[in-house]
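Changelog note: in this version the structure field was regenerated for every chain. One regenerated record is shown below for reference.
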Amino acid sequence: MSEENKIPPEEIPKEQPVNKDPTDETTSSAEPVTETEQRETNNLPTGQAGEKQETDIMETHADHLHKAPGQGWKHYFFEFLMLFLAVTLGFFVENQREHYVEHQREKVLMASMVKDLQADTANFSKMSRGISLINMHGDSLLLLLANNSDLNKNAREIYQQEVWINLYYKAIYTDRTIEQLKNSGNFRLIRNTAVSDGIIEYDGFVRNFVINMQDMGVLDQSKKVDESGTGIFKSLVFRDWMNESFKNIYTIKLPPAPYFLSTDKKLVDVYMNQLGKYVVFNNWFIQNTQQAIKKAVTLDSLVKKEYHLE
């Protein structure tokens, strides 16, 4: 080519650069997809193809975490320590809750115990007054029967004393709380040793020296007195007295003469002997009952003080 036909360099058109849109998804730095992978993806339904891609991404992320640094023995030890602390704290909280429930239960039982002791004090006091009244009439009756020749002459006075001997006052022991402590194994709830020992001592004393003594001693003597007087006194007097006792306990009706079934000295002497023994047993029993009342009052004060039940 001749120099005349040459085009000057500045007139030669330059290749224009291609401006790529950064948002263009076709321009990606990801690794090229092989023909086989592209074909498998194209053969899947639209939804499954998307799920497959997400699954691949998640698997890659899991592999990355598994291989991430800092996952050595310190990491597992920390997880174990957190788990151990959580279990220990849960056990501690549950244990404290059980202790709280038991302490509340203990206080409820002790409040019930105070009510039982107060009931015992009232019942034993009433019983002691009743038995003391029987003994007073028993002593008066023994004096009237001492002179056998004056029985019919003193019939009204004799019957006035004799009707009281037929009465009987039973000891009522309020042991509902103590029985609950024994049968339910709740004695372990009583943390205060002095209170626990006091309850056991009180229960033993009442059962042995009040309840058992009355059932095995006082009651037996009362039956013997009643049997020995069956051949002497007419029961009609006692029956009428009971019917009228709410009006006037000091009024009696004498039966038609003869006033007594028998005035035989031997029968009267046997009766007086049994009555004398009965009075002695009653006096002994009253002493034990008074001692039980003192123990009840002392235990009541102790329980109130230790459990702030005032």
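Spot check on this record: The radius of gyration is 52 Å. The chain is about 70% helix and 0% strand.
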